[in-house]
Amino acid sequence: MLRQRTSAATVARHARAFHISASWFRQILYSYNDIKSVSKASPATKKIIDVREPNEYAAGAIPSSTNISVKSLQEALSLDAPDFKSKFGIAKPSKEQDEVIFYCRSGVRSTAAAEIAEKLGYKQVGNYKGSWLDWSSKSEGEQAGESSSQLKPGPDGKIQGVGEGAKGGIDLKAMNQRAHKEAQEAEATPLTTDGKESESVKNGAEMKEGKKFQ
């Protein structure tokens, strides 16, 4: 995490869209790994708040985050504790003891939200400036890497999956033989009856280029 003082000019540019005044304030900048750790641990003293619109939040959000749109943030943080919990399902963050961490789609609304919280008296204000674009890109990359790591070659040369349905493995030699046969068939049957390229044509093209399953 990095503490940074944001210039008044930068805040002003972001704040004008939400009709709030610009001022100097301190914020704690969060990286993807920082947010990942907080979202997994879900510490009681750190609240991740998604300030996008509800439809954006419904389409995908950071785990353990709570949705409060930036347009209604000031009103929400001004509620008393019982009303806040009733409306949002979590305890209202303490201005003195808790840290509120904001994110949006690309960091613009989260920057405006951070200023709102600071003006309301919150002492610890975090901003994930990479926001959803950064999170979705990196988390999807990690998931893809984990999926590929689930396959590994066994002693018989087959790829053995370690997850469900892995029994028997994948015989790469047999797959390549089938692909070669399909490549030969493609010479005689270049197109299907509806004019679309057949699977055998696609596989045949790959074999001609010397590509094999790996």
TrEMBL record:
Listed Basic and acidic residues bias regions: 194-214
SUPFAM superfamilies the record matches: Rhodanese/Cell cycle control phosphatase
One Pfam family this sequence matches: Rhodanese
Entry-linked InterPro entries: Rhodanese-like_dom (IPR001763), Rhodanese-like_dom_sf (IPR036873)
PROSITE patterns on file: RHODANESE_3 (PS50206)
Full protein name: Rhodanese-like domain-containing protein
Transmembrane regions listed in the UniProt entry: none
Region named Disordered: 138-214
Bias type Low complexity, positions: 138-150
GO molecular function: thiosulfate-cyanide sulfurtransferase activity
One of the record's GO cellular component terms: mitochondrion
Gene3D superfamilies reported in the protein's UniProt record: Rhodanese-like domain
Domain Rhodanese: 42-144
